[in-house]
Write a structure and sequence with these properties.
It is a single chain. The protein is of the alpha+beta class. It has 3 domains: about 1-80, 2-Layer Sandwich (Uridine Diphospho-n-acetylenolpyruvylglucosamine Reductase, domain 2), CATH 3.30.43; about 85-195, Uridine Diphospho-n-acetylenolpyruvylglucosamine Reductase, domain 3 (2-Layer Sandwich); about 210-310, Uridine Diphospho-n-acetylenolpyruvylglucosamine Reductase, domain 1 (Alpha-Beta Complex). The chain contains 8 helices and 21 strands.
């Protein structure tokens, strides 16, 4: 065991039994048995190759903004990706997976490049955003990506946007063991004043709608119009334009905002946010999840799909 501990130290900053409640925006979860914080892409690849060759379980975490971790924690190795290199090549921004999405937006704004304005206020890292095809305001990250560098079974390869199999809040990487290393964002030249006005407009839209307590963001995927069993014409026009029915709106119709189970609560500000109101446990949050699913099905006959990754 001591030899294993010494080996892990070669790849980054190693800590033992760090609670996931300190590593995730939900502030929920027990200890990560071994936590390796990796700041260098080559060392990240070397660590993945080492663990893969030894058959050792590992869990990847970035900004921790879309995760609900177990109260018992996770055995084995947790890799916190903190590779943060970002560079501008023409109209393309190349960003390491551990870079904050906000840092990519800042660089695009400084260089009058359009396409990522909607990401203002969206938490998390580039790797997490790519893996979950992060989106807001009816837009998503997939539309700005040309290619992605990944680790796959001991090899480092580049895959095209099409290869990533992007879908609503999904990508190929959610269903396999690939690890995102770098991403190429293809942006377009724009007027800086117009870009900043868009950013400010999106920020204004977000202000006051999102809770200040710990959460994992929107818990459920919004509902595609094609899956809405009711009369689409009765829905607000904005939903019809965007092609989705917001789960937050569904919760408002069900009058569920504000309900609590233990330390977990559906936010008063946004019906699709479950917040850690007071030292919530995973089980308490999952009870609220079940209530939301049951009520939504009973009234609207829709089956809610989780956007947040629930780690058992």
């Amino acid at each position: 065991m001591e030899q294993f501990y010494d080996e892990l130290k070669n790849y980054g900053d190693l800590k033992l039994n760090v609670p996931f409640s300190k590593l995730t925006t939900f502030a929920v979860g027990g200890p990560a048995q071994y936590l390796v914080q990796v700041t260098d892409s080559k060392k990240l690849v070397d660590l993945l190759n080492y663990l893969n060759s030894k058959g050792i379980n590992y869990f990847i975490i970035g900004g921790g903004s879309n995760l609900l971790m177990p109260d018992d924690g996770v055995e084995g190795v947790t890799i916190k990706v903190q590779t943060t290199k970002i560079e501008l090549i023409g109209n393309t921004i190349v960003a390491d997976s551990g870079a904050q999405l906000g840092a990519v937006l800042n660089l695009s704004c400084k260089n009058s490049l359009a396409g990522l304005e909607w990401t203002i206020g969206v938490p998390g890292t580039v790797g997490g955003a790519v893996r979950g095809n992060a989106g807001a305001m009816g837009l998503d990250i997939a539309h700005s990506i040309s290619k992605v560098e990944i680790w796959r079974n001991g090899e480092v390869i580049e895959v095209t946007n099409e290869d990533c199999q992007f879908a609503y809040r999904e990508s190929l990487f959610k269903f396999n063991k690939d690890v995102v290393l770098r991403t190429w964002f293809e942006l377009r030249p724009g007027d800086r004043k117009e870009i900043m006005e868009k950013v400010q407009g999106y920020m204004k839209h977000r202000t006051g709608r999102y809770p200040h307590h710990p959460s994992a963001g929107s818990f459920f995927k919004n509902i595609k119009l094609a899956k809405w069993p009711g009369d689409i014409k009765e829905l607000p026009e904005l939903f019809q334009q965007r092609g989705t029915v917001p789960v937050g709106w569904v919760m408002e119709q069900l009058d569920l905002k504000g309900i609590t189970v233990g330390g977990a609560k559906i936010s008063d500000e946004h019906g699709n946010f479950i917040i850690n109101y007071h030292e919530a446990k995973q089980a308490e949050i999952l009870q609220i999840v079940d209530i939301m699913k049951e009520k939504a099905y009973n009234k609207f006959k829709v089956e809610l799909e989780t956007e947040v990754e629930i780690v058992p």
